[in-house]
Amino acid sequence: MPGLGSAQRWAAAAGRWGCRLLALLLLVPGPSSASEITFELPDNAKQCFYEDITQGTKCTLEFQVITGGHYDVDCRLEDPDGNVLYKEMKKQYDSFTFTASKNGTYKFCFSNEFSTFTHKTVYFDFQVGEDPPLFPSENRVSALTQMESACVSIHEALKSVIDYQTHFRLREAQGRSRAEDLNTRVAYWSVGEALILLVVSIGQVFLLKSFFSDKRTTTTRVGS
Description:
Helices cover 41% and strands 29% of the residues. By secondary structure, the chain is α+β, with helices and mostly antiparallel strands. The chain has two helices and eight strands. It is found in: Cytoplasmic vesicle, COPI-coated vesicle membrane; Cytoplasmic vesicle, COPII-coated vesicle membrane; Endoplasmic reticulum membrane; Endoplasmic reticulum-Golgi intermediate compartment membrane.
């Protein structure tokens, strides 16, 4: 029947638009907070950050040194009472997960005080809390529908894609920095070799010239 075919087409179109709208909603951030920052850390310097956290909240601190020196930095995490929760020296990258034991302001610091000449570029991601479920189970009397289950799977896949993209960007930036540093060293070494070769060549020329130059000897007679 014509009416039935038209209704099916409208239902299919509505389903497609519904999936698109849900996909857009998947990209909207939830109540959980995350601080993702890349900053410059000069030599002999220390940079601290602060975050207000409520008791029982699960948090994750992840950091990585992108450029500078041996790509290492000191990291320290303290609770509101000053107790050390995490402390590592000269780490290139690391990840630490903890659950806040009390309310208050937590502090985490990055230190480059052991370095005298080189500054560092540091990236960190501080995740506070967990993402709420897309479809809360409160006041639900039925299981998730097929579309809702697909949206949850897409949401988890998108989060994994974002994490992979972040790590690949960090690796690309670190690789580019190392390549530029290696290129600079090779350029300096090439210039040094050219200067040494020039000095040796000039020295050989003067040395060979001294072998073939005429040496006039003068003799003097001593009267008897």
